[in-house]
Specification:
- The structure holds two protein chains of two kinds.
- Chain A has five helices and six strands.
- Chain A is of the alpha/beta class.
- Chain A has a single domain, classed as Barwin-like endoglucanases.
- Chain A has a six-stranded mixed beta sheet with strand order 2-4-3-6-1-5.
- In chain A, helix 1 packs antiparallel against helix 2.
- Chain A is globular.
- By secondary structure, chain B is an alpha/beta fold.
- The longest helix of chain B is centred in the middle third of the chain and has 23 residues.
- The termini of chain B are far apart.
- Classes of the chains: A alpha/beta, B alpha/beta.
């Protein structure tokens, strides 16, 4: 049975595409495509009825963001989603610095739901909607 | 056409210094020896996403202004502020960082660098328990056990394995490249056997073909001669695919796994079957490999510093290495991200006594991570201005922190129109360090290396160091005028 929402653990980090994209320029198509996405386990995508390269809404207690779901190619990682560092991941990252200055960028509880009808914002649109600039 | 040899790559903490660039008409046209990110940097520096002129936000829009106007505006903002933050530094030279310390002291601000969101917790642990480390050269020539924990060098430090660890030809330890190729061949053969069995092509399969994994004992790769590569991570990364042994830990459980390893290295019994999702027999195999090796190294990444436990994860990793040094030789090293984040720590330390989160607001340097870290200052909404240089907090800080950054005037110095520059109040274009201006950078093992200038910067674009010096000079002029009038 297809579920409406799925509880997962959000990890953020580097990908080689994010590295290449950031050096091309943060306004580049390469950067946009590399960081406005989220790796998901193929089984989890099936549970949600989400197809590869379609939009999903990822929510944590800090906010929600629409990104593209991409099937994780290496191995099964049920219950884990992985977003490359970037403005999209920051919208939902935890602010908890544990009093040492480091926010919890990895291991945050999150919720995923299909969002095919919701638009994927560009960096300028995202910054405008988040910070008004 | 000129070929420039031995160029240091200004991308990650590996600082590969064997890059060969072809320069034609003051432009880099070809990159040799570099990784994908290196090539992207050396060819992407001249892209259309570059800031070309100084910009100031007027009526909500960034508009081009003369350099002098931008310098004056920036200096005015900083001179007026009560508690400004000066943040970034990981992608610029030590020479610029030195001016940054002087400027922050002059304006009584807080100097912080990007280690606050990468290896800041590692620094805290090193200050508590010390660090048994070495240079990458020693690892290249001598290490026979390489462990990457919570990091994916294939993605973030693409040539790390090739230059310093598993796939490098050291004097005493040889490259495992051939072993890797054999492993790939074996994986292909295994797939062929599986397909043949599934399709019923093989009529009488041997026992070995049916159950190759039930041979018992540690995996053959762990018993082989020469270098071994172990990866510990929460997901199977590209680096994990080339490892001799991959241990998958549950997210936020690294501390437990590391403590279990400490117990096993000390020959203690564990009365559980699994720790952090890892069967104890797997951990026993890792502990055996650690004790058996002649020189081992743990490289750790943000998988440890950003997960639950944060600096305590590093405490226990360093303690594990200390325990291992009672049995064999072992070292540990953080995988530093940006090419000169180590330099930012080094410069801040030699100038102020502290590696990051240095508060000059009382007129002397003070260091109290959690209080004087830029992230906490922003989240507590305490700062009233900011200067961001050679980094992109709008793309790397949680939203709430950026919300406060935007509330107050802030200045951005960067070659690219990045996310922070897009929402900044004053934006300075700067020359690319390591391409258009030389300088010094520190590799992840604290070895300083020279960066080369290979092309001239576009006309009118200053270096980070020059921009900071101009702002500092202007701040001093404004302050002296203020003193005269009062």
């Amino acid at each position: 049975m297809v579920k409406e929402k799925l509880q997962v653990t959000l990890l953020t980090g580097r990908t080689i595409e994010q590295g290449v994209g950031k050096e091309c320029g943060k306004g580049s198509k390469e950067y946009f495509e590399a960081v406005s996405m989220c790796y998901m386990d193929a089984g989890d995508m099936k549970k949600l009825g989400v197809k590869n390269n379609t939009n999903i809404l990822v929510s944590t207690e800090n906010g929600s963001v629409v990104v593209k779901a991409v099937k994780y190619p290496r191995a099964a990682t049920p219950g884990i989603i992985y977003m490359p560092y970037g403005p999209w991941a920051n919208v939902i990252c935890s602010n908890n610095t544990s009093s040492i200055g480091m926010p919890s960028f990895k291991g945050t509880p999150a919720e995923v739901e299909p969002a095919q009808d919701k638009p994927l914002l560009t960096m300028k649109e995202l910054l405008k909607s988040e910070f008004g600039r | 056409m000129t070929i420039v040899n031995a160029v240091t790559c200004p991308v990650c903490g590996c600082l590969c210094d064997d890059i060969e660039l072809t320069v034609e008409n003051n432009e880099v046209v070809k990159v040799k020896n570099g990784c994908a990110i290196c090539e992207s940097k050396f060819l992407g520096y001249k892209s259309e996403h570059r800031v070309r002129k100084p910009l100031i936000r007027k009526n909500g829009e960034l508009v081009e202004v003369p350099l002098d106007e931008a310098i004056h505006k920036a200096a005015e903002v900083l001179a007026k502020a009560n508690y400004p933050i000066v943040y970034g530094w990981s992608s610029t030279s030590c020479e610029a960082q030195r001016v940054g310390v002087e400027l922050t002291e002059e304006i009584g601000g807080v100097l912080d660098n990007t280690s606050v969101v990468c290896h800041g917790p590692s620094i805290l642990s090193v200050q508590e328990v010390g660090i048994p480390s070495c240079t990458l050269g020693q690892i290249r020539h001598r290490a026979d056990l390489i462990i990457y924990w919570g990091c994916d060098p294939w993605s973030a430090h693409p040539r790390h394995l090739e230059r310093y660890t598993t796939f490098t030809e050291g004097r005493f330890e040889k490259s495992d490249w051939k072993g890797y190729l054999q492993k790939v061949k074996a994986a292909v053969s295994k797939k062929k056997i599986e397909s043949a069995l599934r399709r019923g092509v093989v009529k009488h399969p041997s026992e070995h073909m049916l159950k190759p994994e039930t041979m018992g004992g540690p995996p053959p790769a762990m018993m082989k001669e020469g270098r071994k590569l172990i990866i510990v991570d929460v997901r199977k990364t590209m680096t994990a695919e080339i490892a001799d042994y991959f241990i998958q830990v549950e997210p936020n459980k690294d501390y437990e796994v590391m403590q279990a390893l400490r117990a096993l290295v000390k020959d203690q019994e564990l009365d559980v079957d699994k720790v952090g999702g890892v069967p104890v027999e797997y951990l026993e195999e890792v502990a055996d490999a650690m004790v058996r090796c002649e020189f081992g190294i743990i490289f750790f990444g943000l998988g440890l510093t950003m997960s639950a436990g944060k600096f305590r994860n590093i405490d226990v990793a360093i303690s594990l290495v200390r325990d291992l040094n009672m049995r064999t030789k072992f070292a540990i090293m953080p995988m530093r991200g940006h090419f000169n984040v180590t330099g930012a720590n080094v410069v801040a330390t030699w100038q102020s006594g502290y590696p990051y989160a240095v508060d000059f607001s009382l007129g002397y340097p003070r260091y109290n991570p959690g209080e004087t870290t830029v992230m906490d200052i922003l989240l507590r909404q305490e700062s009233d201005a900011a200067l961001v240089i050679a980094s992109d907090p709008a793309a790397n800080f949680p939203r709430k922190a950026v919300e406060h950054l935007v509330k107050n005037p802030f200045i951005v110095i960067d070659p690219h129109m990045n996310a922070t520059a897009l929402i900044g109040d004053v934006v300075f274009p700067s020359a690319f360090v390591g391409i258009e201006v030389g300088g010094t950078a520190y590799r992840m093992d604290h070895v300083p290396l020279p960066l080369k200038k290979v092309v001239e910067p576009p006309e009118g674009i200053l270096t980070d160091e020059e921009i900071l010096k101009r702002i500092l000079e202007e701040v001093r002029t404004i302050k002296s005028k203020k003193t005269e009038t009062s």
